[in-house]
């Protein structure tokens, strides 16, 4: 089957068969065409389908060539008029010959369709199509975290963002067409910039000086705020590494106060492939020497009482979740198909699952680590959420066991209470939480930016406990603050309770390295780690340096 027949099959097949467009193409071995080419063709054609439908209908193509299907005609006309190399078939191939003979007619229709949209050029029309296809993402800024391990805000303002005008409101970054930059008032080293200008091609991006990370995704590490007196840090679910590298940057930022011993970040990632991405990101961000990656390691199998983790004072838990808060996750351009009868065009909704049946929409929920569930009913969604929340609870309960731990942040990019406040309430009721004195950190004790963040946890879902609800932090896609839907809860250990249980130690009873005593620089990128506690690094196979 040719590239075009395979692409036409994808465009017209049911969303219940195989999940999102990406997974239907990349996880399906039945296709003979290169997956990248197939994906690009289907995506670009969908993007252009409103215009191409007018072109095909205006040229009466389906009337003149009755053997052509609507999907096939869209794909071929797309490549004929818009692809650099034209139609990817041999010159004498029947399909190519059949379409090319209408080139003049189709080109004129394209010009008409462009002029109807008042676009001065094909380039301008292309920008318009890209913007329309960006879906909800177009209404959000591009958040950029400046990586303190490699650069500084000052340096980036003078270089990468030198041509940007300063915006005083986040809305200006979204609505203005030219380049604007907004300094975030909550999270240090974070800026929002106008979308549509490719930052991935900049030197700052390719050298790890800037990291594209949604504002809300910066909350967990900032809220955890690991300092020199927090010992080692665990990132329990680390890939691709946005929060791992943020933790490293914060640790280094607190370097002025200095720790008595080098601090290590243990970054667990149970998926081997994703661990490779994590490794690359940690290396690029300049935090490799302070991070040990547990590639393929399940955090739930880590022994809290092992010698290795005896100095772990802080844990960041950002487990797999439904991903319901992610902006643009499911956005795919709406597919317009020319009708055989030119009077009516068909509109197909392309959901996360790909093209749907006519005017129908079948939801596919994709977890933030890629697992897809076709939501044939509310009960299916509910069941998936319960499974996720059980896993999230088990992760938190496991984290509560680490003997020296005094701080934890738990986060999801889900908006469902069952994965958020309900998880918090369930773990607070647990035996280990009560025994070891874990509670939610009150809002007034949180770092300034998080204390001042206006959107808090759901009171009802916290059983009416205002202190707990206020201690939790939320964001919603549509709250006008320019961020994705997110949830973070900070936990701390209540010293008094822990001491009463004979388990904890008061700060003044803690060893020097955990109570902030002693002054020594944090391990530098190039430093060799010759600390005694690290001598057995090589014996412990799970983590690689
Ligand atoms: C939400 S993503 C983490 C995103 C990451 N914190 C960041 O900001 O870049 C969840 C990750 O946790 C991993 N994961 C899930 N369960 C795990 C477990 N029990 N132990 C270690 N990693 C786990 C998944 O493979 C996935 O890569």
UniProtKB/TrEMBL annotation:
Highest rank taxon of the organism: Eukaryota
Molecular function per GO: RNA binding; RNA methyltransferase activity
Active site (record annotation): 413
Pfam families tied to this protein: Methyltr_RsmB-F (PF01189), NSUN5_fdxn-like (PF21148), NSUN5_N (PF21153)
Positions that bind S-adenosyl-L-methionine: 237-243, 269, 318
Positions of the UniProt region annotated as Disordered: 502-545
GO cellular component terms listed in the entry, alphabetical order: nucleolus
UniProt cross-references to PROSITE patterns, sorted A to Z: SAM_MT_RSMB_NOP
GO biological process: rRNA base methylation
Family: Belongs to the class I-like SAM-binding methyltransferase superfamily. RsmB/NOP family.
Protein's name according to its UniProt entry: NOL1/NOP2/sun domain protein
Organism classification: Eukaryota, Fungi, Dikarya, Ascomycota, Pezizomycotina
